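Training component of the fellowship. As part of building independent skills, the fellow (R.M.) carried out the full modelling exercise for a liganded target. The chosen ligand was zinc ion. The inputs are recorded below so that the supervisory panel can assess the work.
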Amino acid sequence: MKLPLLALVCATHLATTSASLGSKKHVQVLKRQATTAPPPPKPSTPTNVPTATASGIPPLSKITMGMPSAPTPLVTATFSAGAEPPIKGAPPLPSPFVFMLNEWPAQDRVPETNTPEVQEWMKELEGFNIPNISPTTDGSCAGDIEAAAQAAQRGWWTCGGYTRSTDIVACPDKLTWGVSFDDGPGPYTQTLLDYLKSKNISSTFFLVGSRVIERPTVVIEEYMAGHEISVHTWSHRPLTSLSNEQIVAELGWTRKAIRRMIGVSPTTMRPPFGDIDDRVRAISLAMGMVPLLWTRTPSGGVFDTNDWKVAAGEVTGLQSFQTFENIFNNASALDNGFIVLQHDVHEITVDMAVGYTLDAALNHNPKFTLKAIGQCTNTPATDMYLETTTNTTFPYPNNTKVDVDGDGKAETAIGATTSDAALIQSSIFTVLFGALMAAFGSMI
Ligand SMILES: [Zn+2]
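Fellow's submitted model of the complex:
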């Protein structure tokens, strides 16, 4: 399946996209899926259609693809090079970013792998046990029958919701809402940032590298406002469909772009569409990035607001809100908290969040506590970045020789007192990974 160049939507739409190909094969697979994985319950009629309290947000019934655009919001805060970030021990903000065409891969394409940077980052995998799992056809269950049949062994999240103990999939405390926004920064992210500030809410932002180089000041504002910054790849492809080198390139270039803007490198990542298996996991962990997904209930309920479907014209804002109401029901049935998937790259998804979903969450009874994912999992803020973490188990293994910018020199000195830290990493990792594999069955 050929994905559009600018794949800006997440989650479960992969199967939908495959189905739209209309081939008999795909239809058959979807039917088979339906027998093994019952669809989530139908959205109920919203009992109380809310009115937006924030100014400039259209009524819910008007939020749909093709609605008129509001003026792009102005940047409300500026930060100078050398400014002190809110993370203890973090370096001051770097010099202002100047885009140079020859310094970055083409936007929204899988970066070339035969480059000095990617080859340098490939060294981070040396000594690690990267499972020899074949890439999937397109990251969807429906697109790859063989891979789908092995989904459990592969630990494939997209196809059956299989997780490993290294994945972060929920907030531990009941009624705690892990706030996350993906795919930005976008032209309306500023509106969201202003709203979050007014409500004193922190979020985790999963950034696409191709967007980071477009809007560096927004990335800086997110970071300086105390939000958490995480990697969401360079071109937003399903990672299970890529080669090891391509996965490294996707993660490496995004990490490098983020570091160029804010001076630190995230220790976490979220795979586009949630498309992760044991190979993608192992590569991410070897590069010092812990996977953060979003919550699924045992019955198949997913904490996906479906805001991306509104932007894609598949549902209306009202229908998306109905899905969202199910999240409330799912949340009440859980013993723990949960992580919710939302997007800030489109005006529509920002309007949904600012006007309706976050407001509804804040006004919910019983009360939800809204926090960024690192906060809700009690992860110290310093652990969220390679340059500031002092934790030897997050990300695990302790990355002491990571060359983020590909210049041949390690970017962080924390714990890097030995000449062969990579070997130490690998031995720690081998033990932990071996235990993991023993717990979850044999590898493919
Ligand atoms: Zn995404």
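The panel noted the following from the submitted structure. The two ends are 24 Å apart (CA to CA). The chain has a mean pLDDT of 82.
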